[in-house]
Amino acid sequence: MSSSIKNIDLKYSYDKYGNLAEMIIFSITRLLYNVFFIFATLFTKALTEKANLKQLIESPHPHECSPKETYSFSKEILFTKNSLPHLYDKSTSVQKFNNYLENFFASNNSVTRKEWDLALPTSDERQEMKQLINYLYGLYTFNEIQSNAILNSFPKLQKWVNLTFIEGKYCIIHEIIPSGCRFPRFWGYTALCARKYALKPNLHHSASHFESDGDVCNEAATIFESTGSRSLVVAGANRYAVRGDNPSSCQPSYQIADASHNNDPMFFTMNVAVHDAAKQHASKNSLPFNDTFIEWHGMAETSCLSAPIFISAGVHGNHFIYGDKNSTVNRIRDSVNKNFGSTSSAQTPHTDESCKLIASSNVFGRYVNSVPESDVCTIEAKIRDIHSQFVHIEQKHNARCSWDLWVKSINDAFPI
Ligand SMILES: *[C@@H]1O[C@H](CO)[C@@H](O)[C@H](O)[C@H]1NC(C)=O
Ligand SMILES: *[C@@H]1O[C@H](CO)[C@@H](O)[C@H](O)[C@H]1NC(C)=O
Ligand SMILES: *[C@@H]1O[C@H](CO)[C@@H](O)[C@H](O)[C@H]1NC(C)=O
Ligand SMILES: *[C@@H]1O[C@H](CO)[C@@H](O)[C@H](O)[C@H]1NC(C)=O
């Protein structure tokens, strides 16, 4: 009995050591394999990242209009954390800076619903943004001021926002340049031209549909800059940035990231802030408040067949504003038709009733036309409150790539 136990023991020990040897070999093989796998993965990842960054450096975005002034990126600019070197020299411009910032905007179908919800501004952040814009709007020049000194008074924003100044003339309020590929909050930006330099102190521009409407952000930046207008607000996300079907609670027939139809994005708050600052500035100086706010859009070639350019005051064609030869909408239409010649003609809702892109549900448009800030989702502007201070411009491809003609047209429609 005992010998059989011994035998068993022996067999057991033999199996044990045999297995151990196998296990050691197996473990070493597995370890080698794992080490190889880890290195291979890291190597592939590094290659992919390098390729992605290379692509980002070489082709910032597919710009349909091939902007004449494309900022040429150097690796240092992209790789140095939180730095914006060389952006203050004479060759720089708001359009080039816009082009640079677009690299970090949220593209079509790139954001999860959770990321979007978390990125929305808090009410404290909105409040501070309004105060910051109001403060900067009142300055005569931006020569003597520094980002840090100002932002210290805006502790909630300071974590996310920085100011870039171009020659004391422009101040651009934007998210801190990220080390990664994207701004974390999708807020877009506001550019102000200082009071001393603004040739058209009562003219403002915005673009709400990054990417999906074509190259309209670069276009709006060019027109803002080249006409000497006072402000520019650009949204930081494609209207279809959020993955899946996400109707906005503001206006359920539009998607949640559509900054023209939702009052949640910072774009709306920035526009309201500029509007209110302009109004306050006028009242302080006992001037009538009659500023114009143009929102720039691109439309499909298949939309509005008889209108290469469609200019609306945010209301249907029977409104009295279209019968006033000197209303802002009609002045722009006439100068477009003069300057664009046969290349593109402009219509209004009065001359082209078949085009439905009249922008009566545009949330900022409603605000300009006296709808209270908290009601803009659901309440239309009252007919008597609409004086074409809000102008909505839809354009097909040729028109939205004709930046020079637009600069001429806006200069003619808003003479100094
Ligand atoms: C903010 O911008 C200034 C230049 O205007 C720069 O010196 C500073 O490093 C920037 N801050 C951050 C956090 O990026
Ligand atoms: C957005 O992205 C989705 C999937 O990536 C694509 O199917 C769709 O055509 C894109 N839409 C636009 C308007 O670019
Ligand atoms: C047209 O409107 C502009 C801007 O409000 C004003 O300066 C100009 O005097 C007006 N012209 C006429 C003919 O009423
Ligand atoms: C504001 O401008 C519009 C369009 O130019 C003009 O019709 C209106 O009379 C102006 N109102 C004031 C108060 O200046």
How does this model look, in words?
By secondary structure, this protein is α/β, with parallel strands linked by helices. The chain has two domains: 1-58; 75-413, no CATH class. The protein is 40% helix and 12% strand. It has helices spanning 2-58, 75-79, 94-102, 113-119, 123-137, 147-151, 155-158, 216-226, 266-284, 328-339, 363-368, 397-400, 403-413; strands spanning 161-166, 170-175, 189-193, 200-207, 229-234, 292-298, 309-312, 346-347, 390-395. A nine-stranded mixed sheet has the order 1-2-3-5-4-6-9-7-8, with helices on both faces. Helix 8 (216-226) links the parallel strand 4 and strand 5. Helix 3 runs antiparallel to helix 8 (216-226) and helix 5 packs parallel to helix 9 (266-284). The model is unreliable at 1-14, 51-62 and 66-91 (pLDDT under 50). One 2-acetamido-2-deoxy-beta-D-glucopyranose (NAG) binds next to strand 1.
Q: What is the helical fraction, as a range of percent?
A: 25-40%
The low-confidence parts are 1-14, 51-62, 66-91
Order of helices and strands: HHHHHHHEEEEHEHEEHEHEHH
- How confident is the prediction overall: mean pLDDT? 86
Biggest beta-sheet profile: 9 strands, mixed
Specify the overall morphology.
globular
Please give the alpha-carbon distance between the first and last residues. Answer: 115 Å
List cofactors, ions and other ligands. Answer: 2-acetamido-2-deoxy-beta-D-glucopyranose
Q: Please state roughly what percent of the residues sit in beta strands, choosing from under 5%, 5-15%, 15-25%, 25-35%, 35-45% or over 45%.
A: 5-15%
Q: What is the domain total for the residues?
A: 2
Tally of DSSP β-strands: 9
Number of H/I helices: 13
What structural class results from the helix and strand content?
A: alpha/beta
Quaternary state reads single chain
Keywords: Membrane, Transmembrane, Transmembrane helix
Transmembrane segments: 20-43
